[in-house]
Write a structure and sequence with these properties.
The chain is of the alpha+beta class. The chain folds into 3 domains: 4-153, DNA methylase specificity domains (Adenine-n6-DNA-methyltransferase TaqI, Chain A, domain 2, Alpha-Beta Complex); 155-216 and 371-428, Helix Hairpins (Orthogonal Bundle); 225-370, Adenine-n6-DNA-methyltransferase TaqI, Chain A, domain 2. Helix content is 35%, strand content 22%. The protein has helices at 9-12, 57-60, 112-118, 122-132, 142-146, 156-194, 259-263, 279-284, 330-338, 341-346, 358-363, 372-410, 418-427, and strands at 4-8, 13-16, 30-37, 42-43, 46-47, 53-54, 73-76, 84-86, 94-96, 100-105, 149-153, 213-214, 221-222, 225-229, 234-237, 250-251, 254-257, 269-270, 275-277, 294-299, 303-309, 313-315, 319-324, 365-369. The protein has a 5-stranded mixed sheet. β7 and β8 (84-86) form a beta hairpin. The protein starts with a strand and ends with a helix.
């Protein structure tokens, strides 16, 4: 064991894609019949069969070269280029739509799941980057793909062990993603309950069956609540940009937030920014730093990204900030607006891009408890589920780092799996 080889895709495989089926129409997609696979059905290296369209037997039999079988390896050549999937739990009849290659082995020299990980590695990413650089047509053509060269162990057992190790990490990643989605669903349900009904003095979520409600412009709300315009809840401020061609305006002194900064955060808090401005830049722009725990929202390109800024800051004209008063907790304002992106877009205007005017933001209504303590309890419960999501997101990042390290080591033979193989043989 331990001997490795280097070959190209052309040495080991022949590619097939849909070249027939001219004029396949939407009305030919059926409720039953053979499965039709597209790249949009690829999820985490697997095919989501439930999402696939279905076609007639006649269409399926039209091209046997793109009929898919168990453990076939697929790769997208159009659209999102380079997505890969292994056909596991393959139904008896499945075929490809346009935009996807199937790799047919010329011999049984290589394990398809091993190649799957090679095609998801940094080596293939660099290859794709090189062949697509400067090209106006983003397309993985057969001639280019055939030239992709990679290394692999000659022993199938070693290939399988490497694929098994990486698949084990993928399984952990998949389970972690599922946990995150579960928590997100719980959070969505909690927000619906807490931001509509709130919590009574006994710590119980209210219900119209057991508590008193009243009419409001936002619909029925608890009698202990009010529908308040944001103007009543704090000071709304615009932003500005210092001269970009004056380097003395730009430095490492003050946080200066743009919509791009808001689009790149994963939680509800902002602590820094991609670009910072100097004292001179601050004086030229907003002339003031806003206090920590102020709220910020993007008002153009796009509308509706929001966060709470934990440090003194300023921002550009693509954002507006709200300095909350004593009537509202910053986090309550955040949770109230984070799910209102579509509502905020509806009151925005513009032809080239939407922009949320200051007066529309100021008049936007929030349903909130008059008792700040109730707001704090609501925030506490939502923070709790957010903390669980954050922990799992951190775990997910660690697992991805482990996987990337293993791929770098195992797929380039920097680390040998020989001891694992020898142990497997001893246990048999």
């Amino acid at each position: 064991m331990g001997e490795w080889s280097q070959k190209t895709i052309c040495d080991l495989y022949r590619l097939r894609a849909r070249i027939g089926w001219q004029g396949l129409k939407a009305h030919e997609f059926l409720d039953d019949g053979p499965y039709l696979i597209t790249g949009t059905n690829f999820h985490d290296g697997k095919i989501s069969w439930d999402e696939c369209y279905r076609i007639s037997e006649a269409r399926y039999n039209q091209d046997t070269g793109i009929q898919i079988h168990e453990n076939d390896l697929l790769i997208t050549k159009d659209g999102t280029i380079g997505k890969t999937a292994v056909a596991t739990n393959c139904p008896p009849q499945a075929a490809l739509n346009s935009g996807v290659f199937v790799l047919h082995q010329l011999n049984r020299e290589l394990n398809s799941k091993y190649l799957y990980y090679v095609l998801n590695s940094h080596v293939f990413e660099l290859f794709m980057r090189n062949i697509l650089t400067g090209s106006t047509i983003k397309h993985l053509n057969q001639e280019h793909f055939y030239k992709f060269s990679f290394t692999y162990p000659k022993q199938k057992a070693e290939q399988e062990k490497i694929a098994q190790i990486l698949a084990t990490v993928d399984e952990v990643i998949g389970k972690t993603k599922a946990i995150i989605e579960k928590y997100k669903a719980i959070k969505e349900g909690l927000m619906q309950d807490l931001l509509v009904n709130g919590i009574d003095e006994n710590g119980v979520i209210r219900s119209p069956k057991t508590h008193k409600y009243k009419d409001s412009p936002l619909g029925k709300i608890p009698v202990e609540w009010d529908a308040m315009p944001i103007l009543r809840l704090g000071t709304v401020l615009g932003g500005s940009t210092p001269k970009t061609n004056d380097s003395s305006n730009w430095g490492e002194t003050h946080v200066w937030i743009t919509p791009n900064d808001l689009s790149n955060i994963s939680g509800k808090y902002v602590f820094s920014s991609e670009r910072k401005i100097t004292d001179k830049g601050l004086n030229q722009a907003t002339r003031q730093l806003l206090p920590p725990n102020s709220f910020i929202i993007s008002c153009r390109a796009p509308v509706g990204y929001c966060a709470i800024v934990r440090v003194p800051f300023s921002h550009n004209q693509g954002c507006k900030s709200i300095v909350p008063n004593e009537l509202i907790v910053s986090e309550y304002l955040y949770y109230s607006l984070i799910g209102k992106k579509s509502s905020l877009e509806r009151v925005s205007s513009g032809t080239t891009f939407l922009e949320l005017p200051k007066k529309e933001l100021e008049s936007f209504l929030i349903a909130l408890p008059r008792d700040v303590k109730e707001q704090e309890v609501i925030v506490s419960r939502l923070n709790s589920i957010d903390s669980k999501i954050a922990v799992e997101m951190l775990n997910l990042s660690k697992y991805f780092a482990v996987k990337n390290g293993l791929m770098q080591d195992l797929l380039t033979h920097k680390v040998s799996v020989d001891p694992l193989l020898e142990r497997s043989v001893e246990n048999e």
